[in-house]
Specification:
- It is a single chain.
- The protein is an alpha/beta fold.
- It contains 5 helices and 6 strands.
- The protein has helices spanning about 30-40, 75, 95-100, 100-110, 120-125, and strands at about 20-25, 60, 80, 90-95, 125-130, 145.
- The protein has a 4-stranded parallel sheet with strand order 5-2-1-6, covered by helices on one side.
- A hairpin with a 6-residue loop joins β3 (about 80) and β4.
- The longest helix has 13 residues, at about 30-40.
Length: about 150
């Protein structure tokens, strides 16, 4: 057997093929949706996955206003930030954040599941979240992904 025929192929920026994917968040649970979207953004569903390269797809999430949270998480889940000043810790419940902008709830969940480095920041820029059905990426001809089929 010729061992030279078995080469590990490592993807790079020039050889990666990116496509546009459309995910509908209507009736989906927040964490389960966010983990699937993070996998699509990172490129872990592709056989050519390379950990140090942005080889994932561009993902559009619509209907963020129809997301579900299980249990008592609407009141008990808190998003904490700090202004940088003494006594400057501020917090929002999931319901308050959802009231301000439903898309930010999904964005924060997905961002927490990506790497905490420059690559993670670059990957996060490939995510577009919209509160309703209307999105501005019709020209990219996104392929619809049904997350219920992945189970």
């Amino acid at each position: 057997m010729d061992t030279l025929s078995y080469k590990t192929v490592s993807a790079n920026k020039a050889t990666v093929t990116k496509e546009w994917l459309l995910v509908d968040a209507d009736g989906q649970t927040l964490g389960r949706l966010a983990s699937e979207v993070a996998k699509l953004l990172r490129g872990k569903h592709k056989p050519s996955f390379t950990p140090h390269v942005d080889c994932g797809d561009n993902v559009i999430v619509t209907n963020a206003a129809k997301i579900q949270l299980s249990g008592n998480k609407w009141e008990s889940k808190e998003y904490i930030r700090h202004t940088g000043y003494p006594g400057g810790q501020r917090s929002l419940t999931a319901r308050e954040l959802f009231g301000k902008d439903p898309a930010r709830l999904i964005e924060k969940s997905v961002k927490g599941m990506l790497p905490k480095n420059k690559l993670g920041a670059a990957i996060f820029r490939n995510l577009k979240v919209y509160s309703d059905d209307n999105h501005g990426q019709e020209a990219q001809k996104p392929r619809v992904i049904n997350l219920n089929d992945n189970k």
